[in-house]
Amino acid sequence: MRAEPQSFDRVLSSMCTEPHPAAREAAERFLATNPGDPGTYRTVADLEDDAIATLGEIAGLEIDAGRDGNGDGEHGEGPSGYVTSGGTEANVQALRIARGRADDGSGRARPTVVVPESAHFSFHKAADLLRIDLEVVPTTAARRVDLDAVRACVDENTAAVVGVAGSTEYGRVDPIPELGAIADSVDALLHVDAAWGGFVLPFTDHEWHFGHAAVDTMAIDPHKMGQAAVPAGGLLVRSAALLDELAVDTPYLESTSQATLTGTRSGAGVASAVAAMEELWPDGYRDQYVRSQNNAEWLASELEDRGYEVVDPVLPLVAASLPTSLFEALREEGWRLSRTGDDERVRFVCMPHVTRERLEVFLADLDRLTAESSAAAGVRAGSRGD
Ligand SMILES: *Cc1c(COP(=O)(O)O)cnc(C)c1O
Prior knowledge:
Bound molecules: pyridoxal-5'-phosphate
CATH superfamily of the largest domain: Type I PLP-dependent aspartate aminotransferase-like (Major domain)
CATH architecture of the largest domain: 3-Layer(aba) Sandwich
Low-confidence stretches: 66-76
Mean pLDDT: 93
Shape: globular
Number of helices: 11
Distance between the termini: 58 Å
């Protein structure tokens, strides 16, 4: 097999990026380890504890020193999360916790989960798997969830309210403290999806984490802005008791129970997450946030100068209305671009590999294609004799 992965040079819409060199090296070293069997693979299981401790620090979660992330019950406090295969698994598991907690065995109506329309499509997978009804509520003109709409649809069947901290399409942050109060009013859990935003939000003044609000569970992915190798997602829980909702007995392993969704898991993901966070938290991530945010604001103003409508980048993600013909011509040139769900806007995710130099090359291509297409339009107009 001689295939090589694509270069990141022209990848502008992905939420993944080149792993940090230390993360790449750690991933290779731990390829043949399985944190799903902590009794056997002790070193990587300990690394997972380190990963959860740092993720907790990033997300304002007070973790008890006696915590133990492996479900082997050696310490009193129990795990505060685990390294998932990604944001999707973290979201599925968070809703699974909420459903388990809401089910009092009385056979009441199906539990519901309230999500903003800006929520990631993984919540639809979760609802399908878990037989939960999603109540999708609209966002306001600011592209954040409409709190009145959330208040209007929560009731005794609500198992969880979801807030997005860094939405996939527009990089918006829902009002998390207010959502926490609403969830509390009906005894539902608050889940925050910071899968993408979690590694940039600490350097902003948004209120998004366990220390800011009554957050119960959170998705936060090292394999996106965290610069870890894929797969490395994160599920954090406010208290170990919440993870117990997920625990099943594991008869043939050395450990006694497992709260994860998958069984065998990637030790490479765990080790690379620890390596990336050791290298980069907090200063490296802060520097990267500043670079990415500056690039997003620069790109937004360059596109506005060219007459395109641009959604203000609150986080390092720009959404701009480019004509379909231009979008397609740019893709023909090899630019990896995608559009928002309503097809209205092209997304530019200013990940670490999206440097100013690469954006300059992109804009030069955009200008050339624009000039070529107006020259072609001029020729057509001329040949019609007008
Ligand atoms: C990317 C993303 C997800 C899904 O994460 P995967 O790692 O692709 O499973 C969920 N939520 C948000 C907000 C995301 O940006």
